[in-house]
Amino acid sequence: MVSHGYRGLHRPGDRHRIPKRGRRRKVRPNRQTKRSCVDFGIRGRTALVAGASAGLGAAVAIALAREGVRVALAARNLERLEGVAAESKRCGAPDARAFALDLQDADSIAAMLDEVHRVFGDPEIVVLNGGGPKPGRFTEMTGADWDAAYRLLLRGMLLVLERVVAPMRERRWGRIVALTSTAVKQPIDALVLSNAFRTALVAALRTLAVEIAGDGVTVNCIATGRIETDRLRSLYGNDESKLLDAGRDVPIGRVATPDEFAPAVAFLCGEPARYITGQTISVDGGLVRGLFG
Ligand SMILES: NC(=O)c1ccc[n+]([C@@H]2O[C@H](COP(=O)([O-])OP(=O)(O)OC[C@H]3O[C@@H](n4cnc5c(N)ncnc54)[C@H](OP(=O)(O)O)[C@@H]3O)[C@@H](O)[C@H]2O)c1
Prior knowledge:
With 293 residues, the chain is of the alpha/beta class. It is built from 8 helices and 7 strands, in the order βαβαβαβαβαβαααβ. α5 (192-212) links the parallel β5 and β6 (217-224). α1 runs parallel beside α2 (78-91) and α4 (143-171) packs parallel to α5 (192-212). The site of NADP nicotinamide-adenine-dinucleotide phosphate (NAP) has 30 residues, from α1 and α6.
């Protein structure tokens, strides 16, 4: 079982605990397939999930595997990727496979895409995701920090898109989903690199979405709120009380698990989402307070 870095923050007695009666009905997966009852219609499609060795990327890869999608998992740490690949196989993607990728390195991106193409053909679904940039305030950043964040959050994603978009248009079917942050709707204090480059990515993808909307390819972004992963812990601290604090100003009253995040991405990759494009959808428990948050 892959943990996605989730260590069970939500204990009995926490504020968000669901009462025994009345509030929410338990949704049981289909017993035979262990999949949800909603069919996203993408069984047999091929997906490339970047940043898939942990956290949100791993959870998305497994959610797609549950839909019967053939998943290519990419990140730097091959050992952790193999663990996610094994879990994906158990969940419904028997040929799930790990590919080495460093999004900061253009040669690594090209080599990964060549290898994915050799093994799976052109990906029909691409989930753009990777690590977060160095945290900090504007006045603390150096030119090297800006360069590194540009390579990780913007250039790396654009280099992937340069290769994957044309085959999707030719096939007249494709799904691109970029995992970004609520920072693109409301800048976050002391995360200036994220605020700057994720917003640029959303603007580029909004432009792309319109350009290729007539070709059966949708392009959407997720504005991620606070999900319990290694990244969130690195920002808030490993201490459980700090993570509980991180959830207090979220209207739902807590941070989320990666498994609560991933289905939204799987939905956007699915057939029923064919008329949704150019959107940035918040999965944030109501954190962003804007009218269109
Ligand atoms: N969790 C949240 O609450 C939250 C909120 C808003 C935004 N985000 C953003 O969403 C993204 C994913 O978050 P997460 O919480 O899942 O983070 P995470 O737990 O730190 O996972 C990051 C993933 O990206 C991979 N990665 C890091 N650097 C990479 C690189 N240079 N090339 C390729 N892959 C790389 C990591 O694998 P390797 O180390 O194996 O490469 C890992 O699989 C991050 O950009 C994060 O900042 C997260």
